[in-house]
Every structure is written in structure tokens, then in C-alpha cells.
């Protein structure tokens, strides 16, 4: 036994010697550059080179000496930091031939000394993850004098901004931009990004904004809005700043913009005015799906969803531009927010008024695929539209005590819109024989009103984690429209020149649509342990909707007073919901996990006033949910979620009325529709490495809907269709989405490079002449992103790559629309002597041939400007701008849906030249603001 112990001791001794010979040491002294004094307790970090993971950490001793021992062979990064000194960063290797790295004296430079030279070794963390929030640090990016927030955000990895100011982050559209967590002019993000100065910003946060009640309880309720929050520097919250710009150009193009902001104490006052016909600004009415729409759906939790299929001119126009037509815009607004009483009370108010006029022409070529043949339709349309809108919203919050808070929100909308449209349409068969001919004019005048008030009361109880909250919401909408339809449709027998039947419609259309809804939600949270809690909720919701649609034919005396009962209907939809739910929430260390469900008992009543018939339903909806989040470290996170929800049919789908807005496609409602059930799975992963400025993100979702509502279309041999909504019992519609981004800085050439991948696929169904048709629409794209900035010299960014579109239908398989495409965008800025600056941007689009469309489409829209700067701070600019220099901005769109293929061309803004003068003025924090 004694001999065995001696052998083991010798073995352990020898292994320790061998291990000591293969383990390395890093040592050195940390001193000041100027007087070589020791920097006691300087932070010394040893990172693994390939992924920046921390291997060893220590602090310098009183004499500045540090030593890191027992280091395995490999490649490493040494990071030395000390407050108010520039970081020291160096890469090195340890192997069997070199087990010791002795730095001797590491001299750190005082930041105050090198500010003018900017010789900082190391990188600043451009972003980090805080819970559900991705936070960007503006100090890690280049900010030019007089740059706007938009110019800063363009540099953020994973975020894109198009020429109209639309922001896309991680593949999703950012619909809300806040300032210090507060609304700024409500729902128009461009008023923040295009007007606030970048050098006022302390940080920018990206997150999915939850409802106020969900934010308080910490439990997801499914209400999320992709949001950017711009937090301002404390010393930049006093003073005033603004911008004035005027411009005039060829072909009667013009623009004007003014904005004034005054910040003092905890108050913000801002006002703006915009006018022009260039389509560049003031068109982002972000609330188009919230107010003034004619079709609504009450969801299973009592919420209201407004939709508009865009096919009925007698539903009010929502004021959207979308690049189609020539717009004339006048809009303005005023904003005020304040905090007082030691921040216990706050108010946020916004008022906006706007007017947009839109005119243009549109040509459509459509291939309608049937089970054994196709019908080809051509359409020429001209339109004029006008909309005037006033919107006011107000938020007031008071912290009654340290545990009790009340928040009130109220908003209102008044909108008037009128439109006129003339259309000529022709349908032919595959041999070119004429099947139908339609000539139609419509006019319409609509008034919309919407009001909403919401109250949220939150209470924190004595036990930590125990809370109570009550949310009450009352909303109402009212839409009245009056218009005229004059239509003549002719139908032909093949090979016969004269029509053999004609249908004429000459009607006055009067619609009166309203909705009133009340929603309540009481939530109680109870901690079961330090890491587990349960959230219980009860909700009571009630809604009443009315849709009175009347069509009047002309009487012999010339008045429209003869009610057409076939195309008229008065319909009411009432719904009462009682909801119960329980959600469990687990949170420990780096893990957050929640799961549970809500259940709703629904009483559903439909009443057909004209026919005095009632249809009632009672059913139970359930809404399961699951959320999982794991934060590996501060800049690496994984999230997974599942949400299930019942979707009720919309009033447009239910109302048993024949819509003859288009005589070639009559739509019929179906009061016997059942709800659908939607399942949504989401996942995302994000990581960022500071030293290499490397980021990687991937997000995806998969959705499948059971018992979906689809269209059932019957089309005769003359091209005349009747559409009805039905449930599909044994199939599910599905959709899949994937977006990935990877990028890093190439240090050798100081170039930021990235690659993006996007894929989506949708599988839908519809009936065509009783035959079930499955359609598959997919799009795949790959993009390369490049950007480089050289201070006071140049700045450029570009992204480009191929796309592939798939559009297959199970019927008439020979008529697919699969094809390649290519898209590219660039932006560049060059600074010249004499305060001259040249800027240019461009967009290239290519759509290749398909089996159906034998012509490819290609265009390159190129814009450029030359600017002369004046004054000491360069804030007065005179510019000459050329838009669409190659005159290729032909409005074009190609789409495939339910087996039908459509190609559109339309009037849009083309080449013009403009002379403009702009003046940025600012006095914040006691003086002019300079760039970082």
C-alpha cells in the first residue's frame, strides 16, 4: 500500500510539473504616459481572441504591477482600462515556445490630452442587451455637424431606413419612435428622425413596446409595437432648435418645411408645418388601420381590429400615398409635454392637421386563372382624391403615492375625404376573343369620426411582487359616406362583334357604419416564490356594430329614391365576452419563462334588420401563450414564443349584402362563418462582440391558421364572377418568415460589411369554380451591405443582392410566375474644399421574365445634389437637387395572389430639378452643439 501511495505522489508531482510547463503567464506594469506614475487597481482583462470571451481578470497592485497565471496556450486579447484614460488593447499568442508575455510598462494616455488627436486604442461598445431592449451608443458611431437622428440610425447594424424614412429593424417595420419614452407628435416616426439633432442623443433603444398594463405586470398580452426610443442627453434638454427649408423646381414642383422645438426644465414644446408636392415628407399617417375604417372585427379578447380591403370606393379613403399618383400635401402640428410635482404628474398632448390631394392614372394587366383556362383583363383608370384630417391625443399620468398610479389617455379624429374615379376594363379569352367590356365612374364623399378613452390604475401591494391593475377602455367610430356609381357592362359571345347582353347600374350609395365598444381587464399578480409568480386576470368586454348600406336607383323624376333591396342591407353585430386567464412567470438568473392561457366565453349575435332575422352563437375561445428568454451575457440573447388566438370573421365578411361596386366581381357576405384559430411561433437570437464590432441576428416566425376563412369564386365563361367567404374545414393556411443579418468591421480598410438573408413563404387556399386551389407564394433574397466613413472627406453605404420569387397555383400549373430579380441601393456623400458637398443616392430594380410574363422590367432611379454651406457652423445650406436624373421612375408593381397574376403601371413622381435653401438653428445647453 505504501508503494502505491508513493507511485501516485510521483505521478501527481510529474503531472504538475508538465502542466506548469504548458501553462503561460502574462505580466506587466500599468503607468501614466506623462509622468509614468503607477495606476493602482487598473482593470486588466484577458479575452479569448476568437470570440472575446473573458478568460482571466485582475487589477493592478499598488505599484501598478499585474500578473495573470495558469493560461493555456492559444490566441488572446489583453484589455487594460482605467477611468479617464484611453483603453489599451493588444493581441498576442502563447504556445510551447513562448509561455510568458511580459509587456513591461503599459503607458495609458489621458483622454483629456488626446481628445483633439482621437488616438484611442480599443473599441467602444456600439450596443448591448438590457432585458428585452437592444441599446445603441451614439458615441460609437460617426456624427457629423447638423446631422439628424435619421443619419445616426442609418449606421446601426441590423437597421435600415429607406428614402421615405421608413425604418426596418431585424426584418420588422418600426412604427413608433419615442423621445425620452414619450410620444412626440403621436404616430409619425419621421417627425423625430428627420428633425431632431443626432448630437443631442445619449442613447437609442430598440424594443417591442408592450401595452402599459403588460409593462407593469411584466406579462406579455400579445400587444406589441416595434419601437425606437431616443433618449436625450441631460445637458441638451434646455434651449431651442429647429429648421426652415424652402425649395422650388421644374415642372411646378415645390416644398416647404419649418419646425421649431423649445425644451426647458422638463417641458418640451414643438411645432411644425410641411407643404409640397414632391412626395418626400408629411405622408406618414401611421394610424390608418386604427381610425376611420369601415370594416371592423372584434377579437376574442374584446379588442377592435379595423381592416379595409381597398376594393370598395364607397368606404372612405384613408389618405395613403404609397407612391401612386401625384400628391399635394399640407400638414402641421403642435406638441407639448411636461412633468411637475417632483415628476409625480405628467402630460403629453399632440394635435395634427393635414390635407392631401392625390391625382393620377393606373393601368392593370391581369391574368385570371381558372381550372381549365384563363381570362385576360386590361384596365385603365384615372382618379382624383382629397382628404382632410384633424387628430388630437392627450395623455395624463399621476403617481398618487409610491404604490398607486393612474394613467389616462384620450384621442379623437375628424376626417373628411372625397374621391372620383373613372375606369375602362376589357376581358378576353386565351384566343383573344372579347368576353366583356366595362365602363364605370364613381364619386364618393365621406365623413369619419373616432373617439377613444383609456384608464389604467396600477397598485403595488405590501408583499413584494404582489400587484393589482385595472384597465378600462371605451371607443367609438362613426363613418358616413354618400356617393354615386354609374356602370355599364357588356358581355360578348366569342367571335361575335356586338354584345349579346348589357347590364347598367346607376345608383346612389349611402353608407352609415358605426361601432361602440367597452373593454375591461383586471389583473392580479401573486409571487409564489422568489423566482415564480402567477398572474390572474378577468375581463369583461361588450361591443355593438352597425352597418347600414343603402343603394338607391333613379326614379322616373330623376331623383335617386328607389331602394334597391338586392344591394342594400342593414346589419348589426353584438358581442359580449367574459374572460378568465392564468399565466405563470418564472425568472431566475439569466432565464425568463412564462406560460399559461386565457379563456373567453363569447355570446355572438347577428341581426339582419331588413329581413328581421337573428343568428346567435355561443362558444369558448382559448388563447394559450408561452415565452422563453435566455440572456447568455450582456450582448447575447435567445427568445422563443408561442401565441394562439381565435379570429372572428369581419363584418364585411358576414354581412349578407351583394356588393356591385365591380359588376365583373360581385361580393356576397356569409353570416354563417365560424371563427378561425391562429397559431404563431416566433424565435430570435442576437449577439454582438465589442472588440470586433461583430453582430449576428436571426429572427423567424411560423404561423398556421385552422378553419381559415377563404374566398369561394364562381366565374362564368364571360368573365363574370361572384365571390363569397367560406370556412376551409380540413386545411390550414400557413406562413413562414426568416431574417438573418451578420456583419463586422474590417479593420484593415476600416470598412463595415454585412450580409443579410431573408425568406418568406405563404400557403393559401381558395375555391375557383368549386375546385380547391392551393397557392404558394415565396420570396428569397440575399443582400450584401457595405459602409465606410472618413471624417470631413466622404461617407457612403450600399446594399445589393438577388431575389427569387415563387408563385405557384395548383390549378393551371403552367401559369406560374416564378422568376429572378435584383435590387440595389446606395448613398454617398463627398465633402470638397470651399464648404462644397456632393451627395448622391440610387435604387436599382430588376424583375426577370416568367412563364407568364415574357418581358423583364428594369429601372435605375438616381438622385444627386450639390450643396454649399455657409456660416461658421455650416448650418445654412443652398442646394441644387436632381431627382430621378435618368427619368426611369415609372410606377410599376407585379404580384401574384390566389393563382391570379397582376401587373400594374401608374402615374408617379418623375424627373425634376429643385433649388432649395435650408437653415438649421440651435442653442442647446448654453451654446452651439458640435459633433462628437
From TrEMBL:
Keyword Protein biosynthesis included in the entry's annotation: no
Signal peptide start and end residues: 1-20
InterPro entries xrefs: Beta-barrel_TonB_sf, Carb-bd-like_fold, OMP_b-brl_3
Gene Ontology molecular-function annotations: carbohydrate binding; carboxypeptidase activity
SUPFAM superfamilies for the chain: Porins, Starch-binding domain-like
Source domain of life: Bacteria
Keyword Signal among record annotations: yes
Keywords: Carboxypeptidase, Cell outer membrane, Hydrolase, Membrane, Protease, Signal
A Pfam family assignment: OMP_b-brl_3
Domain Outer membrane protein beta-barrel: 460-919
Subcellular location: Cell outer membrane
UniProt GO cellular component terms: cell outer membrane
Main location: membrane
Protein name stated in the entry: Carboxypeptidase regulatory-like domain-containing protein
Amino acid at each position: 500500500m505504501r508503494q502505491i501511495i508513493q507511485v501516485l505522489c510521483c505521478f501527481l508531482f510529474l503531472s504538475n510539473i508538465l502542466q506548469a510547463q504548458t501553462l503561460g503567464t502574462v505580466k506587466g506594469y500599468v503607468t501614466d504616459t506623462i509622468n509614468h506614475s503607477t495606476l493602482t487597481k487598473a482593470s486588466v482583462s484577458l479575452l479569448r481572441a476568437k470570440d472575446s470571451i473573458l478568460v482571466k481578470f485582475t487589477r493592478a497592485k499598488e505599484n501598478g504591477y499585474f500578473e495573470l497565471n495558469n493560461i493555456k496556450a492559444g490566441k488572446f486579447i489583453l484589455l487594460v482600462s482605467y477611468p479617464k484614460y484611453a483603453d489599451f488593447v493588444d493581441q498576442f499568442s502563447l504556445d510551447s515556445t513562448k509561455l510568458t508575455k511580459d509587456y513591461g510598462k503599459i503607458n495609458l494616455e489621458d483622454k483629456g490630452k488626446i481628445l483633439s488627436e482621437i488616438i484611442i486604442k480599443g473599441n467602444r461598445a456600439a450596443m448591448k442587451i438590457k432585458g428585452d431592449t437592444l441599446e445603441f451608443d451614439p458615441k460609437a458611431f460617426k456624427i457629423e455637424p447638423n446631422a439628424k437622428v435619421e443619419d445616426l440610425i442609418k449606421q446601426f447594424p441590423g437597421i435600415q431606413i429607406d428614402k421615405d424614412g421608413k425604418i426596418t429593424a431585424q426584418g420588422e417595420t418600426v412604427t413608433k419612435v419615442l423621445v425620452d419614452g414619450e410620444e412626440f407628435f403621436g404616430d409619425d416616426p419621421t417627425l423625430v428622425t428627420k428633425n431632431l439633432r443626432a448630437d443631442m442623443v445619449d442613447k437609442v433603444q430598440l424594443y417591442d413596446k408592450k401595452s402599459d398594463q403588460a409593462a407593469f405586470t411584466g406579462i406579455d398580452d400579445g400587444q406589441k409595437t416595434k419601437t425606437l426610443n431616443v433618449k436625450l442627453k441631460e445637458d441638451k434638454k434646455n434651449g431651442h432648435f429647429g429648421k426652415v427649408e424652402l425649395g422650388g423646381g421644374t415642372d411646378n414642383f415645390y416644398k416647404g418645411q419649418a419646425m421649431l422645438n423649445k425644451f426647458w426644465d422638463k417641458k418640451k414644446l414643438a411645432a411644425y408645418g410641411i407643404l409640397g408636392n414632391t412626395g418626400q415628407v408629411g405622408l406618414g399617417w401611421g394610424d390608418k388601420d386604427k381610425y376611420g375604417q369601415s370594416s371592423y372585427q372584434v377579437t376574442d379578447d374584446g379588442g377592435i381590429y379595423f381592416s379595409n380591403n381597398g376594393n370598395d370606393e364607397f368606404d372612405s379613403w384613408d389618405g395613403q400615398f404609397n407612391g401612386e399618383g401625384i400628391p399635394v400635401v399640407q400638414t402641421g402640428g403642435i406638441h407639448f409635454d411636461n412633468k411637475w410635482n417632483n415628476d409625480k404628474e405628467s402630460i403629453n398632448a399632440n394635435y395634427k392637421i393635414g390635407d392631401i390631394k392625390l391625382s393620377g392614372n393606373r393601368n392593370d394587366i391581369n391574368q385570371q386563372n381558372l381550372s381549365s383556362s384563363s381570362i385576360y383583363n386590361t384596365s385603365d383608370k384615372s382618379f382624383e382624391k382629397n382628404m382632410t384630417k384633424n387628430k388630437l391625443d392627450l395623455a395624463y399620468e399621476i403617481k398618487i403615492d409610491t404604490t398607486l398610479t393612474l394613467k389616462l389617455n384620450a384621442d379623437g379624429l375628424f376626417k373628411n375625404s372625397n374621391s372620383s374615379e373613372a375606369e375602362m376594363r376589357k376581358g378576353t379569352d386565351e384566343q383573344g376573343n372579347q368576353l366583356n367590356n366595362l365602363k364605370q365612374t364613381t364619386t364618393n364623399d365621406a365623413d369619419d369620426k373616432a373617439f377613444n378613452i383609456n384608464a389604467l390604475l396600477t397598485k403595488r401591494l405590501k408583499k413584494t411582487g404582489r400587484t393589482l391593475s385595472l384597465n378600462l377602455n371605451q371607443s367609438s367610430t362613426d363613418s358616413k359616406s354618400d356617393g354615386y356609381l354609374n356602370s355599364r357592362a357588356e358581355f360578348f359571345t366569342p367571335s361575335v362583334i356586338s354584345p349579346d347582353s348589357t347590364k347598367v347600374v346607376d345608383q346612389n350609395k349611402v353608407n352609415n357604419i358605426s361601432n361602440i365598444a367597452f373593454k375591461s381587464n383586471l389583473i392580479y399578480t401573486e409571487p409564489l416564490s422568489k423566482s415564480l409568480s402567477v398572474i390572474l386576470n378577468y375581463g369583461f368586454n361588450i361591443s355593438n356594430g352597425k352597418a347600414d348600406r343603402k343603394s338607391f336607383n333613379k326614379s322616373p323624376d330623376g331623383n335617386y329614391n328607389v331602394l334597391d333591396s338586392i344591394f342594400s342591407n342593414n346589419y348589426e353585430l353584438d358581442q359580449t365576452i367574459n374572460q378568465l386567464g392564468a399565466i405563470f412567470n418564472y425568472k431566475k438568473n439569466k432565464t425568463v419563462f412564462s406560460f399559461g392561457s386565457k379563456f373567453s366565453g363569447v355570446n355572438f349575435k347577428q341581426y339582419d334588420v331588413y329581413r328581421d332575422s337573428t343568428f346567435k352563437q355561443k362558444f369558448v375561445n382559448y388563447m394559450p401563450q408561452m415565452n422563453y428568454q435566455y440572456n447568455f451575457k450582456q450582448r447575447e440573447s435567445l427568445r422563443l414564443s408561442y401565441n394562439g388566438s381565435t379570429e372572428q370573421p369581419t363584418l364585411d365578411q358576414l354581412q349578407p349584402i351583394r356588393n356591385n361596386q365591380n359588376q365583373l366581381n360581385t361580393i356576397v357576405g356569409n353570416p354563417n362563418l365560424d371563427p378561425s384559430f391562429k397559431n404563431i411561433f416566433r424565435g430570435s437570437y442576437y449577439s454582438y462582440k465589442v472588440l470586433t464590432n461583430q453582430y449576428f441576428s436571426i429572427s423567424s416566425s411560423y404561423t398556421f391558421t385552422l378553419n381559415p376563412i377563404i374566398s369561394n369564386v364562381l366565374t362564368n365563361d364571360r368573365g363574370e364572377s361572384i365571390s363569397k367567404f367560406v370556412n376551409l374545414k380540413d386545411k390550414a393556411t400557413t406562413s413562414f418568415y426568416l431574417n438573418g443579418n451578420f456583419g463586422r468591421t474590417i479593420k484593415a480598410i476600416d470598412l463595415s460589411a454585412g450580409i443579410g438573408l431573408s425568406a418568406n413563404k405563404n400557403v393559401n387556399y381558395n375555391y375557383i369554380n368549386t375546385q380547391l386551389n392551393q397557392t404558394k407564394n415565396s420570396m428569397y433574397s440575399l443582400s450584401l451591405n457595405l459602409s465606410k466613413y472618413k471624417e470631413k472627406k466622404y461617407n457612403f453605404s450600399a446594399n445589393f443582392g438577388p431575389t427569387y420569387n415563387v408563385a405557384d397555383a395548383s390549378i393551371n400549373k403552367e401559369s406560374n410566375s416564378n422568376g429572378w430579380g435584383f435590387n440595389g441601393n446606395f448613398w454617398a456623400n463627398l465633402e470638397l474644399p470651399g464648404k462644397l458637398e456632393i451627395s448622391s443616392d440610387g435604387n436599382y430594380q430588376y424583375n426577370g421574365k416568367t412563364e407568364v410574363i415574357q418581358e423583364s422590367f428594369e429601372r435605375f432611379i438616381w438622385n444627386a445634389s450639390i450643396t454649399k454651406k455657409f456660416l461658421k457652423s455650416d448650418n445654412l445650406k443652398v442646394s441644387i437637387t436632381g431627382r430621378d436624373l435618368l427619368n426611369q421612375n415609372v410606377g410599376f408593381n407585379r404580384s401574384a395572389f390566389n393563382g391570379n397574376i397582376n401587373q400594374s403601371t401608374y402615374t408617379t413622381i418623375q424627373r425634376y430639378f429643385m433649388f432649395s435653401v435650408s437653415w438649421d438653428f440651435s442653442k442647446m445647453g448654453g451654446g452651439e452643439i458640435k459633433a462628437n
